Amino acid sequence: MKQLIRINLSLMVKNKMLLITALVFILISVFQALSLLTYSDRQGIHLGDYYLLSMGGVLINDSYSRQLVWITVIVPVLLYTYHLVGFAGSYDVFILTRLQSRFLWWKSKFISMTVFILFYGIFLNLIHIIVGVFFFPVNRQWGSFL
């Protein structure tokens, strides 16, 4: 079962796609940091404020650029998981005949997707924090911006 999960994860993540995703995350983080700096004139914004504002999601009255940012964050998850949940032809037939159980097959796919999304979220948060450190001071107190 563990080996099947590892195989599914390795099929999902390609090196070139991972690099492109990292570059997109860095560009999104820099875009959000610069837009926050121009919007607020650097009045009491700390790293925590930037993190909460950039990861806060989309509101009804937000601009199209902020909605576009959230779409570009979600699209890589769809691209990565497209091959996992789909029937991958001869590979899945081979695995199904070896396992002789659809439940174990779907269970391994579910666990693989859960592990991937967990690491994807950690990766996104880590890039936001690293980029935020370059633009905003790190304090233990809440800023006056929020």
Q: What is the CA–CA distance across the termini?
A: 47 Å
- SSE pattern, N- to C-terminal: HHHHHH
Helix/strand-derived category reads mainly alpha
Largest sheet: none
Annotation field: number of helices: 6
How many extended strands?
A: 0
Classify the helix fraction into a percent range: over 70%
Overall geometry: elongated
Radius of gyration: 19 Å
Mean pLDDT: 76
Overall structural domain count = 1
* Contiguous runs where pLDDT drops below 50 for at least 5 residues: none
Percent of sequence in beta strands: under 5%
List keywords for this structure.
single chain; 146 residues; mainly alpha; 6 helices; elongated
Plain-language structure description:
By secondary structure, the protein is an all-alpha fold. It has one domain (2-135). Helix content is 76%, strand content 0%. It has 6 helices and no strands. The longest helix has 34 residues, at 102-135. The radius of gyration is 19 Å and the shape is elongated. The protein starts with a helix and ends in an 11-residue tail after the last helix.
